Automatic annotation (TrEMBL):
One of its GO terms (biological process) is L-arginine biosynthetic process via ornithine. It is an enzyme of class 4 (lyase). It catalyses: 2-(N(omega)-L-arginino)succinate = fumarate + L-arginine. SUPFAM superfamilies: L-aspartase-like. One of its GO terms (cellular component) is cytosol. It comes from the Bacteria. CDD domains: Argininosuccinate_lyase. Keywords: Amino-acid biosynthesis, Arginine biosynthesis, Cytoplasm, Lyase. It is found in: Cytoplasm. This is Argininosuccinate lyase. The lineage of its organism: Bacteria, Bacillati, Bacillota, Erysipelotrichia, Erysipelotrichales.
Length: 457
């Protein structure tokens, strides 16, 4: 008979048991469940609700159970309903005091508490990987502040930038993800334990003590909301989805960059794969998988949102579906970061290829127009002149660097010998010395700024 079977006269059908169970998923919350129970009984004893001897028996047996599950000597019963029932049943087998652990508690506040603790631990873990990814990008950026490449809009060569500047764009995205996680974690930091099934309890519990023992900033303030709120999981999964979106954009570029068409980078052999038929192939499977798994995390977020949208207050069993989606999203983010970090760390950059690409496509045309503007022409007129000049270059197979002064003068008498210096890619990059810009000086400043910010993590 199940722990809740006292009012039933028939055994639960095997099919119901299998369908109803969540042990295969929530067994990941062993540590959080035990931590929650230890805090709960400590508070119960302090409040005189249970004997100190009961508290001690419960805590020492819970610690044994935790150790034995960790070392594998206590296998988790796959037929148990969930991790909370399994641990309570195991505890009760070991000590009669076990029957008192659930005093003034419901599985509803227990599961909300365990899940919050678990999700907070998970975010802390993911933050470490994001910091490591940022550090890897900073390292790559430092080595490439002078590596000129074309910056793109519409995937058409647009203006000259550096590889460092491009990588630092991803650093900014990941920094926002870090702060999103911090923000979600801060809002999740209230303790549902003591909310009971939905309406607290008649025992004189001290919810402030329980919250403090568990590291929360305080108790939740409405018992109904406490057991039915999953905003925290949705906010965190939303951030996971955004992290994946950022990683996926990055991976899309990595895939392009290591194609023969670009050849901007080459992945190390350890982080590339081959083909079963084409002996020449070296494929960026990791980057493609990250891109593919992004859809999966979006799906997890959608699962959570859809699960919540018409639940009446308070607890409904639908909520049991929350952990699988959250855990899958978190695990996916972690797996992607774990593999991407060394992939980026070990790639080879080809500055020469980037430069060659930068030299084609007239990406210094804006600079050439700015040159005329600085000599006194209105920008829109200058824009028109350079448009004509580019057209001329295309028809005569030349570029702005190779035109003769006579050819320049056919367009405008304002051109002088210093135009060659003005349209040199190095100059174009160096002169974009505005905050947030690609000049080596600005990017170096940006890198050291981020290094300082990371010290807080
Ligand atoms: N395994 C359940 C969950 O994850 C535990 C809560 C069950 N509560 C209930 N009132 N039936 O949500």
């Amino acid at each position: 008979m199940a722990l809740w079977g006292a009012r039933f006269s028939e055994q639960a059908d095997k099919r119901l048991q299998a369908f109803n169970a969540s042990i295969s998923i929530d067994q990941k919350m062993v540590n959080q469940d035990i931590k929650g129970s230890i805090a709960h009984v400590t508070m119960l004893a302090d409040q005189g609700i249970i004997e100190t001897s009961d508290k001690e028996a419960i805590i020492s047996n819970l610690k044994d159970i935790q150790k034995e599950i960790a070392d594998g000597s206590l296998p988790i019963d796959p037929d148990a309903e969930d991790i909370h029932m399994f641990i309570e049943a195991e505890l009760t087998k070991r000590t009669p005091s076990g029957k008192k652990v659930h005093t003034a508690r419901s599985r509803n506040d227990q599961v909300a508490t365990d899940f919050k603790l678990y999700s907070l631990d998970t975010c802390a873990e993911i933050k470490k990987y994001i910091v490591a990814m940022i550090q890897t990008l900073l390292h790559q950026a430092k080595a490439n502040t002078h590596t000129i490449m074309p910056g793109y809009t519409h995937l058409q060569r647009a203006q000259p930038i550096t590889f460092a500047h491009h990588l630092m764009a991803y650093v900014e995205m990941l920094k926002r993800d870090l702060s999103r996680l911090d923000d979600a974690m801060q809002r999740a930091n209230t303790c549902p334990l003591g909310a009971g099934a939905l309406a607290t309890t008649t025992y004189p519990i001290d919810r402030y003590e329980t919250a403090e023992l568990l590291g929360f900033s305080g108790p939740t303030l409405n018992s109904i909301d406490s057991v039915s709120d999953r905003d925290f999981a949705i906010e965190m999964t939303n951030t996971f989805a955004m992290i994946m979106m950022h990683l996926s954009r990055f991976c899309e570029e990595i895939i392009l960059w290591c194609s023969w068409e670009f050849q901007f980078i080459e992945l190390s052999d350890a982080f590339a794969t081959g083909s079963s038929i084409m002996p020449q192939k070296k494929n960026p499977d990791v980057a493609e998988l990250v891109r593919g798994k992004t859809g999966r995390v979006y799906g997890d977020l959608n699962t959570l949102l859809a699960m919540m949208k018409n639940l009446p207050l308070a607890y409904n069993k639908d909520l049991q579906e929350d952990k699988e989606a959250f855990m899958d999203a978190a695990q996916t983010v972690e797996d992607c970061l774990v593999t991407m970090i060394p992939m980026v760390d070990t790639w080879t950059v080809h500055p020469q290829k980037m430069k060659e690409a930068a030299q084609k496509g007239f990406i210094n045309a804006t600079d050439c127009a700015d040159y005329l503007t600085k000599k006194g022409m209105a920008f829109r007129d200058a824009y028109g002149c350079i448009g004509q000049l580019v057209k001329y270059c295309i028809s005569t197979h030349q570029d702005l660097e190779s035109l003769s002064m006579d050819e320049y003068h056919k367009i405008s008498p304002l051109f002088d010998d210093d135009v060659y210096e003005a349209v040199a890619l190095k100059t174009c990059v160096k002169n974009r010395n505005v905050v947030g810009g690609p000049s080596p000086e600005m990017v170096e400043k940006h890198i050291s700024l981020v290094e300082k910010e990371l010290e807080a993590y």
